[in-house]
Write a structure and sequence with these properties.
This protein is an alpha+beta fold. Helix content is 29%, strand content 27%. The protein is built from 12 helices and 19 strands. Helix 1 crosses helix 10 (310-318) and helix 3 (62-75) packs across helix 4.
Length: 426
């Protein structure tokens, strides 16, 4: 494993960001597998040199960054270029195309990041999607409010992690939701004239997340997570993921089939895939699909009977090694992405030790920084931390996660914004 001709280690270039949760897990997996991992980080070149990062590129300029990555790879060949986050999927496709490595099409990678393009391509491919419309963020929401059906969901076309995603049940709620989403886009540097907002039909139902690999033989499902908390709005904060799924086998088969058709419609053909689906009496509906693995620290709960982690399987496929047959080692596992209850300054998180002692809990990790600002949804872009569990049944996992969360005591104080002091009159 991890060897090439001449006993030279296989090499993989990881495209990542300074704040990515995924980087340590992939570096550890590469070490386990005997692969040489090189990092290309979303950093200015001078800062990359100062931090001893082999390659610093600007992910927001994918064409230029792809040329830099390709030039690096021509000098120092690698067996695979792997994006770890959504921000690098287009760059990875462009760079791989330049150096002749297997890759998803750049258009497919872009569609998996742009919610409007994704829905257009899914619909064109015959995959069920909610009714949707796209509007300029500069539009008058009062005018649009008379054109849409309710309930509906307002969401930016480009942000991830449920940021700016808001349900509206009537015109007044719509106007407020549209304005709030526009403000969130502005906080990310998007002028209203340059940004788009998607308005789509609200789908009732139960949500799941599918983790898989796209291979030449099609979709290989690695895990199907239930999301037992209702996601009905007005905001859509994901909390608990539990696998294996408790859904009937025929429903799980329909979810896998819909995901495979969705990937084909987008043009995704290889590598990791993470899909979010909603299931109701009309069947499975794709809400999101990305050409990367699950976010945050969620993958740490996944262990396969062969002793491999999720990142091991992704790396093995990327460098062309044969994949083992996945077999979940534990009867059930789960993770809670600890929600941020309010915006402000995080002062304390007490009860971590007590939460860790709950039977079935395998770890509690607070990732938010104390005495720093944090934001709740829909403005927030992260979680307070993660709780991990393992038990005999999915029901026991879910119960352990809820009990552990109930033992945490989170103290957040309002963020004080000082007003500028006016100059005294003369």
């Amino acid at each position: 494993m991890g060897q090439t001709n001449g006993n030279q280690r296989k090499r993989v270039l990881l495209l990542t960001t300074p704040a990515s949760y995924r980087t340590p897990a992939f570096l550890a997996a590469a070490e386990r597998l005997g692969l040489e991992a090189i990092q290309a980080v979303d950093l200015p070149e001078p800062l990359a040199r100062e931090w001893n990062v082999p390659l610093g590129v600007d992910f927001t300029r994918p064409e230029r960054a792809a040329e830099q990555v390709a030039a690096f790879v021509r000098e120092q060949p690698v067996d695979a270029i792997l994006p770890l986050d959504d921000s690098a999927t287009v760059l990875a496709a462009l760079a791989c195309a330049r150096v002749g490595l297997p890759h998803n099409a750049p258009d497919a990678a872009l569609a998996a990041r742009d919610k409007y393009l994704m829905r257009e391509m899914l619909a064109a491919g015959g995959v069920a999607v909610p009714h949707f419309q796209r509007f300029s963020a500069a539009s008058d929401p009062a005018h649009i409010a008379r054109q849409v059906n309710y309930p509906c969901v307002v969401k930016p076309t480009i942000l991830s992690g449920s940021r700016g995603v808001i349900r509206a049940d009537d015109p007044d709620q719509f106007v407020a939701a549209f304005a709030r989403t526009r403000d969130i886009l502005a906080s990310e540097g998007w002028a209203p004239e340059a940004a788009s907002i998607l308005v789509e039909e609200f789908l009732p139902g139960f949500e799941v997340a599918l983790e898989g690999l796209l291979t030449e033989n099609g979709l290989q499902v690695l895990a199907l997570f239930d999301k037992p908390d209702p996601l009905d709005g007005p905001f859509f904060e994901e909390t608990i993921y539990v696998t294996p799924s408790r859904l009937p086998e025929e429903t799980q088969a329909a979810i896998a089939e819909t995901t495979a058709r969705g990937a084909a419609a987008l043009g995704l053909r290889q590598g990791p895939i993470h899909a979010e689906l909603r299931i109701n009496e009309r069947g499975p509906w794709i809400i999101e699909m990305a050409g990367r693995s699950i976010g945050g620290l969620c993958s740490t709960v996944l262990e396969f009977g062969t002793g491999y982690k999720l990142e091991d399987l992704i790396l093995l496929q990327a460098v062309g090694e044969r994949l083992p047959e996945p077999d979940m080692a534990a009867p059930a596992v789960g993770v809670m992405m600890i929600p941020i209850p309010a915006s402000g300054i995080l002062r304390r998180v007490d009860g971590v030790e007590e939460a860790s002692k709950v039977p079935g809990i395998t770890g509690v990790e607070i990732t938010a920084r104390l005495n720093h600002p944090i934001a709740a949804l829909p403005e927030g872009a992260s979680y307070l931390g993660f709780i991990f569990a393992r038990a005999e049944t999915p029901v026991a996992v879910e119960a352990a996660l809820r009990e552990a969360h109930g033992r945490l005591r989170i103290r957040i104080t309002p963020e004080i914004r000082l007003r500028p002091i006016a100059a005294p009159a003369r």
